[in-house]
Automatic annotation (TrEMBL):
This is Sigma-70 family RNA polymerase sigma factor. GO terms for molecular function: DNA binding; sigma factor activity. Keywords: Sigma factor, Transcription, Transcription regulation. The keyword Transcription regulation applies. Residues 125-177 form the RNA polymerase sigma factor 70 region 4 type domain. Transmembrane segments: none annotated. GO terms for biological process: DNA-templated transcription initiation.
């Protein structure tokens, strides 16, 4: 042991350095696993909120923050990441710009082959028009739950409210979506495929897969 601390060959120093290297490798592995598992979902969220032109930038900034705050990321990581992406979007893009970006995506999502069933196409148009007509907050809640498949508790973590408040907002957003769609196959009753809340969620999830 030297006067100012461990000598270069000290065994304790060697173990400390090895542990630091091991910890860094663990961090890199964890970050890579989170990135691989969540990158596409974060990108799809950014597209749905602000359009494709800025989605890559939002994803890059979100994961840069994630790397800096890796120790803060809980399991599951997706709600936390979407919350970061939401803040990135909120800081850089006004609500009206986000709405314009969502409307601009309609042409991409509604392009369908000619052989598709007409009723399915009509339902898709109804959902898209209804989503575009909703207030930004309602649209975000529906995107998180129906699009991203988050639970109300996870979605509440993203938007920064209580699960109870999120459930109230979700109920209102679904009701407004059904009303905006003019009940065109999206009513609250009935058990046929494509109807009711489940039908609305199915249509939105289908469009989400096509968007990614």
């Amino acid at each position: 042991m030297g006067l100012l601390g461990p000598l270069p060959g000290d065994a304790n120093t060697g173990r400390t350095e090895k542990q630091a290297v091991a910890d860094e490798a663990d961090d890199e592995r964890r970050f890579t696993a989170i990135y691989d598992a969540c990158r596409q979902r974060v990108w799809a969220y950014a597209v749905s909120r602000a359009g494709r032109q800025v989605a890559d930038e939002v994803v890059s900034e979100t994961f840069a923050i994630a790397w800096r705050r890796l120790a803060d990321i809980p399991d599951p990581a997706l709600p936390w990441l979407l919350g970061v992406a939401r803040n990135v979007l909120r800081d850089g893009h006004r609500a009206e710009v986000r709405h314009e970006a969502f409307v601009a995506e309609l042409g991409r999502w509604t392009a369908r082959p000619a052989e598709d069933i007409a009723e399915d196409v009509a339902e898709r148009f109804a959902v898209l028009r209804a989503m575009a007509a909703l207030p930004d907050g309602d649209r975000e809640i529906l995107i998180l739950v129906a699009w991203q498949g988050l639970t109300p508790r996870e979605a509440a973590r993203v938007v920064g409210c209580s699960p109870a408040a999120l459930r109230v907002r979700l109920h209102r957003a679904r009701r407004r979506l059904t009303r905006a769609a003019g009940d065109g196959g999206l009513g609250e009753s009935g058990g046929e495929p494509g109807t009711g809340r489940a039908g609305t969620r199915q249509q939105v999830r289908t469009m989400s897969r096509e968007m990614s």
